[in-house]
Every structure is written in C-alpha cells, then in structure tokens.
Amino acid sequence: MKKIVDLINSLPEMLPLKPATEVQITDAELQLRVRFADEYKEYLKAFGAIMADGIELTGIAKSEYRNVVSLTKKERELNSKVPNTMYVIENTCVDGIIIWQDTAGIVYQTSPGIEPVKIASSMYEYITNHV
C-alpha cells in the first residue's frame, strides 16, 4: 500500500490536506454505507485529499466538491446506474465525467446517465495513466 503514497508524493505541485484519522474514515464509510478499498484508506490516512498538477482527488475535506461523502451522495442521485458499492474519487469537471472506485479497488468512469465503465484496476493505475 505504500506504493500509492509514494506515487502521490511524486506528483508535481502536490498539495495535500490534513491526513484523515481512522474515526473520520470509518464515519465516511458509514455515511456512504460502503467499505473503502484498502488503497483509498491508505491515501486518506496519508493525505486526507489532494490537488496536484492535472488531478484533484476526493477525500476527507471540508469543501463539498472535494469531500468524498458529499460528492458521492450528490453523484449517486444524479446517476442511478451507479451501484451503491462505489464512491467518487475524482470529479473531472469535464463533460460530467466522474471517476469512481469500488470496494475491490477497481476504478470506473461515468458520464451523465451512463453505466460505469472500468478504466483501471486500481487508483495507482488510474493516477499513473492519468498524469
């Protein structure tokens, strides 16, 4: 799991928030009624949420557009084709494209009203391919 932390630390112009606590992570999972992938939990514990050159990942954040709970709830309402076993890891802010991860760590992409399409086997792979 250290792999995801090392990758994110290597991103250009990376700006992390405050690392999330176990309590905050558990609370977010309970609010969404989903278990985060181990990789996502490791990311949350190390960074909380991040912005870097070309990527802005959700997490435990005060702002709604970066908060995994508020953003996931909003996007689930907007796209009924997304299963409740997924949570938002990035809102690309391009043509309504949303990036999701499931409890197994697989990463998907949706567009408005479209079913999720697998785009990466992990958040690590997604970031590597994205930046």
The structure class reads alpha+beta
Ranges where pLDDT stays below 50 over 5 or more residues in a row are none
Q: How much is the average pLDDT? A: 94
Largest sheet, strands/sense/barrel? 4 strands, antiparallel
Tell me the span between the first and last alpha carbons: 19 Å
Molecular structure report:
- This protein is an alpha+beta fold and 131 residues long.
- 37% of the residues lie in helices and 21% in strands.
- The chain contains 5 helices and 7 strands.
- It has helices at residues 2-9, 22-32, 38-47, 68-78, 123-130, and strands at 15-16, 50-52, 55-57, 86-91, 98-102, 107-110, 117-120.
- It has a 4-stranded antiparallel β-sheet.
- Strand 6 (107-110) and strand 7 (117-120) form a beta hairpin.
- Helix 1 packs parallel to helix 5 and helix 2 (22-32) packs parallel to helix 4 (68-78).
- The longest helix has 11 residues, at 22-32.
- The radius of gyration is 13 Å and the shape is globular.
- The model has no long low-confidence stretch (mean pLDDT 94).
Describe the structure concisely.
With 131 residues, the chain is an alpha+beta fold. It has five helices and seven strands.
What is the topology?
Blueprint: H1 2-9, E1 15-16, H2 22-32, H3 38-47, E2 50-52, E3 55-57, H4 68-78, E4 86-91, E5 98-102, E6 107-110, E7 117-120, H5 123-130
Helix pairs in contact: 1-3, 1-5, 2-4
Offer a few descriptive terms.
131 residues; alpha+beta; 4-stranded antiparallel β-sheet; 3-stranded antiparallel β-sheet; 5 helices; 7 strands
